[in-house]
Amino acid sequence: MNDRDIDILFLIYKGYKNLEIANELNLSEKTVRDYVSKVYKKLQINHRHKVKAYLTSIIHEKMKE
Question: Closest by alpha carbon to 20, among 31, 9, 11?
């Protein structure tokens, strides 16, 4: 994953909608939708709430180390 993918994931985790992400990162909403689709495909997920669950599990795993 590249830095932009991580930015998108973090903002999804924070509860941002696509338009809010676009405004925050100075991108078009279409570009954000494309990034979101790409990230979902990379993570093999299909919904925003699964992004939050995925990142929460990573955080918990890192805390155990």
Answer: 11
- Coil, helix or strand for 49? helix
Q: Which two tokens stand for residue 26?
A: 């100075």
Q: Look up residue 33 and give its two tokens.
A: 């939708």
Per-residue pLDDT tens, the chain, 65 aa: give them: 899 999 999 999 999 999 999 999 999 999 999 999 999 999 999 898 898 888 888 888 878 87
| Phi, psi angle pair for 14, to nearest 5° | -75, -5
User: How far apart, in whole angstroms, are the C-alpha atoms of residue 42 and residue 7?
Assistant: 15
Record the pTM.
0.83
